[in-house]
Amino acid sequence: MPRAHASATILHMLGLMQDLPLTTNWIFSRAEQYYGDKQIVTRTAKGIERGTLADVLADSRKVAGYLDSIGISADGRVGTFAWNSARHLSLYFAIPGTGRVMHTLNIRYFAEQLIYTVDHAEDEAVFVDRSLLPVFSKYLPQLGTVKHVIVMDDGADAEIPDDPRIVQYADVVGGAGPIDFTDRVKDERQAAAICYTTGTTGNPKGVLYSHRSTWLHSNATTTTSVFGLSESDRVLPVVPMFHANAWGLPYAAGLAGASMVMPGPDLSPAAIIGLLESEKVTLAAGVPTIWMGMLPLIEGRDLSSLRMIVCGGSAVPRALSEAYREKIGFPITQAWGMTETSPLGSVCTIRSEVADLPEDDKADIRATGGIAPPGIEVRIVDSETREPQPWDDEATGELEARGPWVAKQYYRTDEPGDQYSDDGWLRTGDVASISKLGYIRLVDRTKDLVKSGGEWISSVDLENQIMGHPKVAEAAVIAIAHPKWSERPLACVVVKDGEELTREEVLEFLGERLTKWQLPDDVVFIDEVPKTSVGKFSKKTLRDKFADYELPTA
Predict the structure, then answer these.
(1) How far apart are CA 388 and CA 399, in angstroms?
(2) Is position 456 annotated as part of the catalytic site?
(3) Tens digit of each residue's pLDDT (9 = 90 or more) over 185-234
(4) Quick check: is 451 catalytic?
C-alpha cells in the first residue's frame, strides 16, 4: 500500500481515481451514443411532431455552431422564452454545452420582472417561440443587452416585427456548421444555467446552476429513491421548462435514455390527458392544479401505461392523491423543493417499514413532503436558538437544506445573505416536522408568501402595490385556502380617514400593475391592521380572524 509522504505539505492521501468533469456534455454524449433512437414528441399548434433524440442532439450541435458564429461571449447568457418542445430541449444541451449559460425566461412574469431578469443576467441572445413573440416583442425595445432574437416557428401565425435583431431559427440554425462539444467545458463547476425565483421579496433572485450540480441532480433522479427513470420510460413534463428547468427532467431523461413527450402551449386538462393516453406516457410531472383539473376526465381513459404522477410546487391535497389511487390504481407522488435546490429536495416514497400499513395510514404519509434523496441533507432548527430539533414528528422548526445541488448564494451577490444560516445551510422559509424515518411534514411558512398553482406571490410586494393607492392607509395580504389553486391572496385594506374605496377600485388599480394571476381574489376592509409588540403587522391574527373565510367562486 502506498504510504503518505512525510512532507508537512501533504495533509492526506489522495485516491487514484480518474478525475473526469461531470457536465451536461457527458449527458449529451451518452444520450447520443446509446439512446439516439428514443422518441421526442412535441404537440404544436399544427399537430403532433415526431422526431428522435438523435434529431434533437443534431440540432444542438447546429445551435452551438450558430452561437459561435455570432460571437456570443465565452460565458455569455442566452435566454429562452419558449414552451416545452423538442427545439427547447435542443437548447438545453447547446447553450451550456459550449460553456455559455442558459437562462430560461419565465413567460408568466409581468413586464417589470422579465425586463429586470434579462438585464440582470445580461442576456446576449434570446430564443423565442413564434406563438410567444407578440408578448416578447413588447419587451424588446427595453432589452438593451439583447443583440440577437431567434424565432422558433411552432406553428403559430404570429407577425414577426421589423427589428434587425430578429432572425428565424430555420434560416440561421439550418445553415450553421455543427460543432464538437468535446472539451468545450473542462471545469464541472462552471455555470450551466440560471433560473430566477420570486420566492423572496423584492426583485427576482438568480440561482446559478453548475454543470456538476446538474449532473448530480440528474443522476439522483434515475435512482429508485427518487423517480427511478430508465430508458423504458416516456416522460411528460407538464411543469414548464422555465420552472427550475422543468424540475431537472430534461437532463435526467437524457441521462436515463427516456423518451419525452412535450406538451407545447396547450396545458389544458383535456389536452394533457389526451397525450397521456395516446403517447403511452409512463411518468408525468406537474403542479396540483393540473391534476385537479384532469381528475373529472379520467373515467373511461386508458392510462394503463402510466406508472407515476409527480406533483410539486404546492402541497398535494390528501383527497386528490387518494382520488387518483381509487381511479387509476396508484396515488400521486408528492415531491418538495425550491429553485434553490435545483429543485429536488425530497420525494415521498413509501419505505419498507410502513409498506404494510393500512392504506389510510399510508395516505397520511403520502401527504408529507417525503424523504430527502441521497445528495440532500435536511434539518429543522428552532426559530430563536437556531438549534437543530429532534426528528420525532412532533418538534417543529425552520426547514434547512444543504447538498451539492443546493445554491450557496444568489447570482451577483457578494455574500449568501439572510437566506442562509451562519454555517451555510439554505433556509427554506418553511416550518416543518420530521419523523424518525425522515418524512418531512410541512407545517407553515416563516415568510408570508402565497403559493398559488405552483407560483409564488409575494404578499409584501402586493401590499406595497396596494398601499400605493392614494386612498389606502394600510394593507396586509394573507393566504386563504383554495380548492383549485391551493392558496389565493386575500387583501385586508384600511382606508384613509374621510375616503371611500370599493373592492373593484382596488382590483382595477392593481390590474394596471400586476398580471391577473397575482391579483387578490378578494378585498376586505378593516379598521386597522393588527400589530405585534414591536409594531410589525400581525398576519397570524389576520389568518386566525379569516380562517373560515370563503373566497368568491367567480
Answers:
(1) 10
(2) yes
(3) 999 999 999 999 986 667 999 999 999 999 999 999 999 999 999 999 99
(4) yes
What does the DSSP 8-state code read for residue 162? Answer: -
Separation of alpha carbons 41 and 38, rounded Å: 10
What is the average per-residue pLDDT within 531-551? 76
The single residue of 291, 405, 456, 485 carrying the catalytic annotation is 456
Q: How wide is the angle at C-alpha 58 spanned by C-alphas 55 and 60, nearest 5°? A: 110
Active site residue 340: yes
**Is 259 in a helix, a strand, or coil?**
strand
Residues 6+ apart with CB under 8 A from 17: none
Q: Which domains does the chain have, with CATH numbers?
A: 24-35+50-178+185-215 (3.40.50.12780), 377-445 (2.30.38.10), 449-545 (3.30.300.30)
> Percent of the chain, pLDDT > 90?
75
Catalytic residue among 340, 398, 455, 487: 340
Quick check: pTM over 0.85? no
* DSSP per-residue codes, 468-510: TSTTEEEEEEEEEEETTTEEEEEEEEEEPTT----HHHHHHHH
The pairing of strands 148-152 and 123-129 is parallel
Tell me what pLDDT residue 1 has.
45
Catalytic residue among 38, 62, 205, 451: 451
